């Protein structure tokens, strides 16, 4: 497979220049002010897929931001790989915590990335990762080594909950038919310990509003005699975890799949450097549900986190006020068998139940998605495992990821197709955080690994069909 390395070496700088061009586009789907830039990014991706060799590459209307769809069908009898990714990115704020501007990509060396890492919003999540597929596709087309049919579906609303995606997938069932979905939007343990995620958590995302008096009050005149909604909200939130850091919502754990001792042992065999983890985050102690390891707490257990809390006076200096309202955004990560709709309902009922008479509460579900576990005995997983073994020199360790990609459960339900999560990022790449980065080594290693996946997948599919 010398062809792969030769092609990458000959095109190294151009691949990077193109990625940089895309990283300079602030495609923040959450920010209406960036609408033009989100659309510009979609057009860029479409053009690059066409140039890479797609027979057809188009922008599909979804009612929201467009899906970029492209395909190259070389032979109807060959297996088809559907590549999914997202061209939208998280908002970059807080801007002042970035060492260099989020949409001006630069390369800097770090301890984890001695060959250099690209610093920019979206570098890892997911522009740097899905672009590896565009370039690997180009490589296979140009070197005449494409062994399967390929379809690309790159969306622009992943970071805001993929609201219009369900409609798109159900309306395009035929067109999206594939033998496997391949996604690079997850992480590896480290470059020394390559891994493949075999699960993603689901999500129930809520917003709450607690109202006390009908207007803001002087905290000296009324304080102590009228419930302060911020004080009340804090107390309600604090009560959502017990002494063992378990979630107190009645029924919350009812549907959770508990793993066998053997399965848990297997998961915990993955390397986890707790000292390095604490050092990286500048924390003295890890935290979490009693009786579980850090690997289990992020992989197989559900969680509840406040993502933001606001109300009252937060400006400069002091203003004495007893606010009328307090708000919070609260997300729950779910594990297999928990249904996001059920959890939303349980949360809503519980939150109303624990509210004292002195306030009124409003609870809104913002968005949800279901957890998934992907098979490790499939041809596609084995092909990915072999591909990584070839390019990293080590068999990848299966892990359960803590993040969520709601489309994966949707693909399973609507298209009856399983996913392989072949991500090349690192958990420490600062996704959704200032100074997001993606290693150059990871970027090029990904481009190199993908064609190996295609070759193994084609060969093994043929063998298993015989
Ligand atoms: N790529 C991430 C998900 C991810 C990150 C999976 C790290 C595994 C490891 C994705 O872009 C993301 O941020 N998803 C959101 C989903 C939400 C907006 C519904 C998440 O996990 O918070
Ligand atoms: Mn992502
Ligand atoms: Mn993300």
Number of domains: 2
List the quaternary state of the chains.
single chain
Sheet having the most strands: 6 strands, mixed
Output the number of helix runs: 12
- At the fourth level of CATH, the homologous superfamily of the largest domain is Zn peptidases
Give me the count of strands. Answer: 19
How much beta, percentage-wise? 15-25%
What is the average of the pLDDT values?
A: 97
- Heterogens: ligand BES, manganese (II) ion
Question: What shape does the CA trace take?
Answer: globular
Task: Determine Rg (CA atoms, Å).
Answer: 23 Å
Strand and helix layout:
Layout (H helix, E strand, L loop, with lengths): L1 H22 L11 H18 L3 E5 L6 E6 L7 E7 L19 E3 L8 E3 L7 H16 L6 E7 L9 H7 L8 E4 L3 E2 L6 E3 L1 E2 L1 E10 L17 H10 L22 H8 L5 H8 L12 H6 L3 E9 L13 E10 L5 H14 L6 E10 L2 E2 L5 H14 L4 E3 L7 H9 L3 E3 L3 E2 L10 E3 H26 L1
Parallel strand pairs: 3-6, 3-7, 7-17, 8-18, 9-16
Antiparallel strand pairs: 1-2, 2-6, 4-5, 5-19, 10-15, 11-13, 11-14, 12-13
This protein binds ligand BES and manganese (II) ion (MN) (2 copies).
């Amino acid at each position: 497979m010398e062809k792969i390395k030769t092609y990458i070496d000959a095109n190294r700088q151009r691949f990077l220049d193109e990625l940089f061009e895309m990283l300079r586009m602030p495609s923040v789907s959450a920010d209406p002010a960036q609408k033009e830039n989100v659309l510009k990014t979609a057009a860029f991706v479409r053009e690059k897929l066409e140039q890479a060799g797609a027979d057809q590459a188009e922008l599909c209307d979804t009612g929201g931001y467009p899906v970029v769809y492209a395909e190259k069908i070389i032979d109807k009898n060959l297996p088809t790989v559907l590549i999914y990714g997202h061209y939208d990115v998280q908002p970059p704020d807080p801007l002042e915590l970035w060492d260099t501007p989020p949409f001006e990509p630069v390369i800097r060396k770090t301890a984890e990335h001695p060959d250099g890492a690209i610093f920019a919003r979206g570098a890892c999540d997911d522009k740097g990762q899905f672009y590896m597929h565009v370039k690997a596709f180009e490589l296979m087309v140009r070197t005449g080594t494409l062994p399967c049919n390929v379809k690309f579906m790159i969306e622009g609303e992943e970071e805001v909950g993929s609201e219009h995606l369900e409609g798109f997938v159900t309306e395009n069932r035929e067109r999206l038919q594939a033998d496997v979905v391949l996604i690079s939007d997850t992480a590896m343990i480290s470059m020394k310990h390559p891994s493949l995620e075999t699960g993603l958590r689901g999500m129930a995302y809520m917003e709450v509003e607690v109202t006390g008096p009908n207007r803001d009050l002087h905290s000296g005149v009324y304080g102590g005699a009228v419930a302060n909604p911020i004080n009340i909200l804090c107390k309600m939130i604090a009560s959502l975890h017990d002494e063992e850091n378990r979630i107190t919502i009645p029924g919350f754990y009812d549907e959770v799949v508990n793993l066998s001792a053997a399965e848990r042992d297997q998961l915990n065999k993955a390397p986890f450097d707790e000292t390095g983890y604490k050092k990286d985050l500048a924390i003295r102690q890890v935290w979490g549900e009693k009786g579980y390891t850090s690997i289990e707490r992020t992989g197989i257990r559900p969680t509840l986190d406040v993502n933001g809390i606001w109300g009252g006076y937060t400006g400069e200096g002091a203003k004495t006020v007893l606010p009328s309202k307090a708000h919070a955004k609260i997300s729950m990560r779910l594990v297999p068998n928990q249904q996001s709709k059920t959890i939303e309902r349980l949360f809503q009922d519980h939150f109303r139940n624990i509210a004292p008479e002195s306030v009124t509460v409003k609870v809104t579900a913002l968005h949800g998605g279901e957890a998934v576990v992907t098979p490790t005995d499939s041809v596609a997983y084995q092909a990915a495992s072999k591909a990584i073994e070839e390019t990293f020199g080590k068999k990848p360790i299966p892990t359960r990821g803590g993040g969520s990609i709601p489309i994966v459960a949707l693909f399973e339900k609507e298209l009856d197709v399983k996913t392989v999560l072949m991500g090349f990022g690192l958990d420490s790449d600062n996704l959704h955080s200032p100074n997001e980065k993606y290693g150059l080594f990871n970027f090029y290693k990904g481009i190199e690994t993908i064609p190996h996946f295609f070759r193994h997948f084609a060969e093994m599919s043929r063998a298993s069909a015989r």
